Amino acid sequence: MKGKRGLVMGVANKNSIAWAIAQQLHAQGAELAFTFQGEALERRVRPLAESVGSEIIVPCDVTDDASMDACFAAVKEKWGKIDFLVHSIAFAGKEQLEGSFVDNTTRDGFLSAMNISAYSFVDAARRASQIMSEGGSMITMTYLGSERVIPNYNVMGVAKAALEASTRYIAADLGPRGIRVNAISAGPIKTLAAAGIGSGRHMFRFNKATAAMQDNTDLEGVAGAALYLLSSLGTSCTGETHHVDGGFHAIGMPQEKALKESLGIE
Ligand code: NAD
Ligand code: 0WE
After folding, report:
1. Using an 8 Å Cβ cutoff, are 218 and 247 in contact?
2. DSSP 102
3. Considering Cα of 232, then 234, then 238, then 243, what sign does the dihedral take?
């Protein structure tokens, strides 16, 4: 990644998936710009960004056009062009992430989850493509809840389905310009965004028991996949949703022994 420059959106703290990706890209020689969501997070993000020598650390709320304008203008002003984009942003109202999807999903809740978790990638990809003059690569983060029902993931699953479809359409549009666009579908990882999950303990146990690897997802694997997709190693790979989840997505039914363990039986 020597000589490559890119924008990383979605670091909240040291546990963020975007931070694991950023550290790997930095280790491989990339130069990084970072966005943070608001003043409250600047305190956490700035020291991390500075520790990898970042010279661009800008606020960005993806629901605010003026904020997106200012963020990409700052990158263009400093660097002129970029080579890659990391989009690692999602949000739905807490009350949308529990119980019955059909009963609890409000219009506002649906639109807000779609806006922040899916449209923001379309918007960021368009803006990034305008400063990718010699090809490039973009990734976003998704989750299996887009393909299958995961209890309580609810409207986020619908937003992730839209995000993955958007990834394919963006890939088709930008392909002729040598820009690749992919999604990484990670298994559950203990981050701020995963902290608020009611059934968290059960989910991690069930995932570990069910996954082909019989283990939870390591951040290292997600960062490695990001490096592959964002570097020339990933040439010709675009429009893809790549699972990094210990093989959980491949399993139709868990081994009896593993299932009993995950439920604490015998
Ligand atoms: P995280 O809380 O560290 O990251 C989420 C980020 O979204 C935060 O940095 C937050 O500031 C940002 N964000 C939310 N609303 C925003 C807005 N309006 N404007 C700008 N930024 C906003 O948690 P994470 O787990 O690292 O999540 C990153 C991505 O990975 C998300 O897309 C999430 O859906 C996805 N993902 C997470 C897991 C998991 O189990 N943790 C699994 C698969 C996919
Ligand atoms: O994408 C996610 C989580 C995204 C997320 C998390 C929160 C928590 C706090 C979006 N919005 C919010 N809103 C909040 O108020 N993941 C893949 C992690 C995750 O979240 C789940 C999961 C998994 C896995 C929620 C329910 C069930 C499983």
Report:
1. no
2. H
3. negative
* Helix, strand, or coil (residue 6): strand
Domain assignment of residue 109, yes or no: yes
Does this model's pTM top 0.90?
yes
User: Would residue 119 show up in a list of annotated catalytic residues for this protein?
Assistant: no
φ, ψ for residue 32 (rounded to 5)?
Answer: -120, 140
* Residue 156, both tokens: 């986020």
CATH number of the domain enclosing 21 = 3.40.50.720
Give yes or no for a contact between 117 and 163, defined as CB atoms under 8 angstroms apart: yes
> In the predicted model, is pLDDT for residue 266 greater than 90?
no
- Residues 93-107 pLDDT 10s: 999 999 999 999 999
Residue 65 DSSP symbol = H
Look at residue 62 and tell me if it is in a domain: yes
From 14, 17, 46, 117, give the residue whose CB has the most ligand 1 atoms within 8 Å, as the site to mutate.
17
- Residues paired with 57 in a beta bridge: 34
